[in-house]
Every structure is written in structure tokens, then in C-alpha cells.
Amino acid sequence: MAAQVKQQLGVDAELVVGKSGEFTVWVGDTKVAEKTWGRFPDPATVLTAIRAVSAS
Fold first, then answer.
1. What is the pTM for the complete model shown?
2. Which of 22, 29, 30, 39 is least surrounded, with the fewest CB atoms within 10 Å of its CB?
3. CA-to-CA distance for 28 and 20, rounded, in angstroms?
4. Are the C-beta atoms of residues 21 and 35 closer than 8 Å to each other?
5. Does an H or E element contain 34, and which?
6. Which residues contact 15 (CB under 8 A, 6 or more apart)?
7. How far apart are CA 32 and CA 45, in angstroms?
8. pLDDT per residue over 9-52, tens digit each?
């Protein structure tokens, strides 16, 4: 996911170790995506959410 963010948006992503099995994407203080019910969010959806928050 970090590589896709870099390639698509030109933004370096920072990996922060969380709880086991956690996957959450933050843009600043705004949560834009997370793993729910054991399923990772679709990468295209994550990129769209990052773009939306970054544009505002």
C-alpha cells in the first residue's frame, strides 16, 4: 500500500507499528481507511480517500 501511495500520489507513507492485525490509514489526524471484519480496504478506495482529504 505504501508503494502505491508513493507511486500514485507522490507521498511518502510512514509505517507505524500498531496492534497485531491492525491496518489503519491516517492523513494527519484524519482516519481515511481501516481494516474491518478481517478485510483490508481496497487500495483504490484508500487512494481516493487520501486524495479527498488532501484536497481539502
1. 0.81
2. 29
3. 22
4. yes
5. strand 30-34
6. 2
7. 9
8. 988 888 888 888 889 999 999 999 999 998 999 999 999 999 99
